[in-house]
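Justification of resources, computational component.

The compute hours requested in this renewal are based largely on the per-chain cost of generating structure records like the one below. Each record pairs the submitted sequence with a full structure-token output. That output is archived, and it is also reused by downstream analysis tasks.
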Amino acid sequence: MQIKTYLRHESVIEELRSITKEAALEELAAALPRQAPGYETADMVRVLMAREKLGSTGIGDGIAIPHGKIAGLDELMISYGRSKKGLDFNAMDGKPVHLLFLLMAPENSAGQHLKVLARISRMLKDEAFRKKLMAATSADAMYGVIVEKDDADAG
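The structure output for this chain reads:
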């Protein structure tokens, strides 16, 4: 199960403009492709903020993987954004978040949803990968770094 199956090139944001958690979630949700009729960015942000109330998806090392499930989606979707200056995401280590992978899944996709979350988490444990994402000079370059790591890990 590869990340590139669910992450579209146009859903990669080179530099997030947001300075708050909720605004970043809105920006990332707005970058998702419009595959499911009838769902709105605001609906996704509500779902994501409700998930954040259960515990921050800021997992440390400058990483956040906000995620949620929403009715009406046909398939899992991922967006990615970077914040060079960092966002306060109430991360577990108390440090700012720079790399954000947002995952929205259909309501009935528990197994698939968890597998993709685990794969993203494993990829991000690689410090060299995180450094490449931070050093990338464009959204194209970031997408390329993600696909390269995804392919290498699929091995």
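The longest helix spans residues 139-154. The CA atoms of residues 2 and 151 lie 8 Å apart.
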